[in-house]
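Kindly inspect the following:
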Amino acid sequence: MNEMVYVVDKVSTFCNIKRMNTTDLTQYESSARLLKVLGHPVRLAILESLYQRSWCVCEIADSLGLNKSAASKHLSLLKRVGVVAMERHGTQVICTLAMPCVLEMLHCTPQDSGFTGDSTETSRSTQKDEAITALQSCSTGTCARTKEKT
């Protein structure tokens, strides 16, 4: 099996990426690829549809107003990163959501973004408090915000 090395971006080649554990780097690059694929509104709409039930490619295309070729290309990208599973039944390709946890993440976006997440002002302020506590307890002393406090 050929192993491919992916560089997330040009900054990674010039920064301290060499200091990272190779296993961690591979995991982060995999996550970055997943997030990049999820970064298209049509793909997000496809995932919302697949959360309800399995669809064939032509049904997804019709429901979203896409041509079948465009829908198929979006679905193949989602399949490549493991979010969608596809199974052929005769001439139809049935698509299923293989990674429903991505929708939980999408529902964390602000309410005015179109998703119906349950993130409230209280939970956001709790998250901010936890982040501030974590920054204050930074033992490395290299955090910019830790240096500002001292």
In short: Helices lie at 10-14, 22-38, 41-52, 57-64, 68-80, 101-106, 121-136, 144-149. DSSP finds eight helices and three strands in the chain. Residues 1-38 form one domain.
